[in-house]
Design a protein that fits this description.
With about 450 residues, the chain is an alpha+beta fold. It has helices at about 65-80, 115-120, 125-145, 195-200, 200-205, 210-225, 235-245, 250, 255-265, 280-295, 355-385, 395-425, 430-455, and strands at about 25-35, 40-45, 50-60, 90-95, 100-105, 145, 155-160, 165-170, 175-180. The chain is about 40% helix and about 10% strand.
Length: about 450
């Protein structure tokens, strides 16, 4: 029997019961997870005479509960509620901050991916499918403006299915950020699954949705090889994440090179060199899964490296999750519809864009910066030639106007050169924030100087 079960991905995933309960209705049970300053208990609630198993997360009591602890729980629950309509996000039932902060969620009876990988290897087909399901969940979060920032095996939980494989769901949204927010905090991170920008935002830019792309890449790498891209002490791993390229999965385990083609672009140091969106990584994983399922590699198990054993750095974390109620297909610009249920297929060929197109788009953006900078630099020359003659009298009048316009015209040209410099920054792999900042500054200099040409 394969690790996730038999039969393949389940065709249907049961929706959660629509229940709501208060803290007083919860009957606590054993602790099933610990992480950070919180514990997760298996509990039960009585709803209309029926006992329902739930998981309850609450702060580990050590005297007085501080206001920031309450704020973190409330913030996590509020983010969670935005995402509770997806098949691969752990379901949220209820939450409150009184009498103490607590979150009631779906009880996941299949354990964590961390526990699973510590005991046995997954067949490569199942490994890729788990990665695909996680990418679907992250895509769902991104469409709601939320970045997870803590994707790792301890935060992927399984629900046992009556038919087919166990269903993976993403949990623990405690580090999640709205995409318009930014943070340089590394508190609570597992170094093996952290992105370069989470350690060095000055060089690689602030963590954002590209960070989740990197982390899903590390998760898939771990799934197909049996180990994360880098191992060792936290300090050693952090240095490797910042400066060392990982070995391709096919050099670590008995997997086809097509796995390398999908995983390695997600692990680029510079954010702009990764997939442009989790959407594209999701689609590449879906294509890879289809080819593995239909090809000779479908039943090949992942081979762990003989010189290294899988190592888990993270403690099992609390089941802090989003609900996986009915699959909600939403319209979007790039894709006509996203079949987010397990085993579903895409409904539009426009939904899948090959990786080389990502590179073409990156080159197009670089060229766009350069062309815009060039045009901005040339425009002031034509404007200067079309200006009417001097209108000031006096022996130095004509000369003064000429010097003034020359200075302003050169300033406008300088604005174009600054915009052009943004192309160089992109080509050098600098952060998107820096590129945009330089381009906007150059454009502002140009427009201000152009206006002055006509006013002076």
């Amino acid at each position: 029997m394969s690790t996730l079960g038999t039969g393949g991905p389940p065709e249907d995933i049961p929706t959660l019961p629509d229940i709501d309960f208060t803290y007083d209705q919860i009957a606590d049970g054993e602790i099933i997870g610990q992480g950070g300053n919180a514990d997760v208990h298996r509990a039960s609630v009585d709803v209309n005479g029926q006992k329902i198993s739930v998981a309850v997360k609450q702060p580990r009591l050590q005297g007085t509960i501080h206001g920031d602890t309450v704020d973190r729980f409330v913030a996590e629950a509020e983010v969670w509620e935005k995402l509770d309509d997806h098949n691969h996000v752990v379901g949220l039932y209820s939450w409150a901050s009184d009498p103490l902060p607590w979150i009631g969620m779906e009880y996941m009876d299949g354990g964590t991916l961390e526990e699973l990988l510590a005991t046995e290897d997954l067949p490569v087909e199942q490994a890729v499918w788990v990665g695909l399901c996680v990418a679907r969940a992250v895509r769902h979060a991104h469409r709601h403006g939320v970045a997870h920032h803590d994707i790792k095996p301890a935060n992927v939980l399984f629900s046992v299915s009556d038919e087919g494989w166990m269903v993976p769901k993403v949990s623990d949204w405690g580090l999640a950020r709205m995409m318009l927010e930014s943070t340089s905090s590394v508190e609570g991170l597992s170094p093996q699954y952290a992105a370069p920008e989470q350690f060095d935002s000055a060089t690689y830019g602030s963590p954002d949705d590209y960070t989740d792309i990197y982390q899903v890449g590390t998760l898939v790498y771990t799934l197909v090889t049996g180990r994360p891209p880098f191992e060792g002490s936290s300090t050693a791993v952090m240095q490797d994440v910042l400066s060392t390229e990982p070995d391709p999965p096919s050099e670590i385990a008995d997997v086809p090179e097509s796995v390398d083609d999908v995983v390695m672009p997600a692990l680029r140091k510079n954010k702009t060199d990764r997939y442009d969106s989790i959407l594209y990584l999701r689609d590449e994983l879906e294509d890879l899964f289809t080819s593995l399922r239909d090809g000779d590699m479908a039943d090949s198990p992942v081979s762990s490296p003989s010189t290294s054993t899988p190592e888990s750095s993270a403690q099992p974390t609390a089941q802090t999750e989003d609900s996986t109620t009915a699959d909600n297909k939403e319209k979007e610009v790039i894709e006509d519809s996203t079949a987010e249920t397990v085993g579903s297929s895409r409904t539009s060929t426009a939904d899948s864009i090959p990786l080389f197109n990502n590179r073409l788009r990156s080159a197009a953006v670089t060229g766009g910066y350069g062309l815009l900078g060039l045009l901005i630099s040339i425009i002031p020359i034509f404007l200067m030639n079309d200006l009417p003659g001097p209108v000031m009298d006096g022996p130095m009048g004509d000369q003064q106007i000429s010097i003034t316009h020359t200075i302003i015209g050169n300033s406008a040209i300088a604005g174009g050169v600054i915009v052009f410099a943004a192309a160089g920054l992109r080509a050098a792999g600098k952060s998107a924030e820096l590129q945009k900042g330089v381009a906007v500054f150059g454009a502002c200099v140009f427009f201000a100087a152009t206006v002055m040409i006509f006013l002076v």
